[in-house]
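Example record

The entry below shows one chain as it appears in the dataset: sequence first, then structure tokens.
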Amino acid sequence: MGLADVVYYTFHFQELRSIIQWKTWHNPVHERNPEKEPVSLRICYDFLDKTSRSFSAVIQELHPELLVPITLFYLILRGLDTIEDDMTIPIDEKTSLLREFYQNTEKEGWSFNGNGPDEKDRELLVQFHYVTEEYLKVKPVYREIINDITHQMGDGMADYCKRAAEGKAGVDTIKDYDMYCYYVAGLVGNGLTRLFVESGLANPALKERQHLQTSMGLFLQKTNIIRDIREDWDDKRRFWPREIWSKYVEDFDDLFKPENREAAMNCSSEMVLNSLSHADECLFYLAGLKEQSVFNFAAIPQSMAIATLALVFRNPDIFQKNVKITKGTACQAMLDSTQNLQKVCEVFRRFVRQIHKKNTPKDPNFLKISIACGKVEQFIESVFPSQDPRALQKAAAAAPQLANKEEDPATVKAREEAKWDIIYMLMVVMGTMFVLSCIMIGIAWLFGARFDVAINELTQGRFSRGDSDTARKLVNKYDRGEL
């Protein structure tokens, strides 16, 4: 922790408290036993730690039935993403690799060392044979799901790379934007849901509600795209759809000019509105997860996303640098997200209200954003009413009876005694203060305090210190010649 962190947490003590609580009190639902794991699997977990600090911890706390399949699922998709991000690979080779990647995961000993030397996760693909070795040990039903998602995602990435190579980089319509987010994140939600249901750790009804699965991925991806706009712009990438940004500026680069700050803020608020449309469906999805570690795994990223959305909303810093929620905010969100759905709903309500508070009538999306925030709160209220209807009915039924019922004499007597106890206590306190005051005044008088001078000044209405001439007159007036 640096000096800046020390200063920050000095004035944000509640966040420091959340960090300490998470470090001290969080107990994993399930824990790994590395001593019983083969070397190849331990290497896979090492790559998981290196490639994802945010997901690694929650994945490694998963139910034993899903721990290895989801770890390998993540590493396979990370490998796919590493190829897609590498601009040093020729486009024909890249599209071929992306489309065939799902087949390569089934080949024992397959690895790839064709990434550029500066590619962040290059080493994962160099040692990918450890992943394929463990992947071939996974239950066939899980492999089928992972393979299907990898195939679809690889095809989607290849199509996008091909468009970029033909000079059609960027996203034009909101429909294109949703499709891109579906390929890189919505498919992940679909695959995870199938794994959850197949393992018996989630409600089978989730498998039939694909829009809920998709919303889980789109909410995360869209929030990250808003947050990372500056980083993507520096890397010559554009994911904000033209259909949105063209309403506010003529050229995408204009969003980063200081003179267009207000237009950029309004554009970002429409992007937040687009992401916020998935929030209530994410909460609906979480209600279908039965096992605690699976719930934690799904809920923590969603809570982080809504916190991030509140941070980036009408925040000009996103056009200057990459902004992130503080560690204290993250720890508090994780603490709440590892309990139950009601706590997660409280997290969403808290950050949705922050968005609503930052919303301004000057924003052309003001009304739509207010409605979107209200929609989330309405969903939460329908699931967890702030006023329990049964309690209200009981209170209403009991009110007439209480009004007509005479008070018990013992209750009246006890209340009367309590009143006199308070009176006696006040008398004792006041008496004690009076005696102490008399003693202090007496001691002051014994040590030579001139109360006659003070009284004379007060009677003449002088409550402040006088000038030096007045002070000399007072000395001469009261001088009795002792000295």
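Notes for this example: The mean pLDDT is 85. The CA atoms of residues 440 and 446 lie 10 Å apart.
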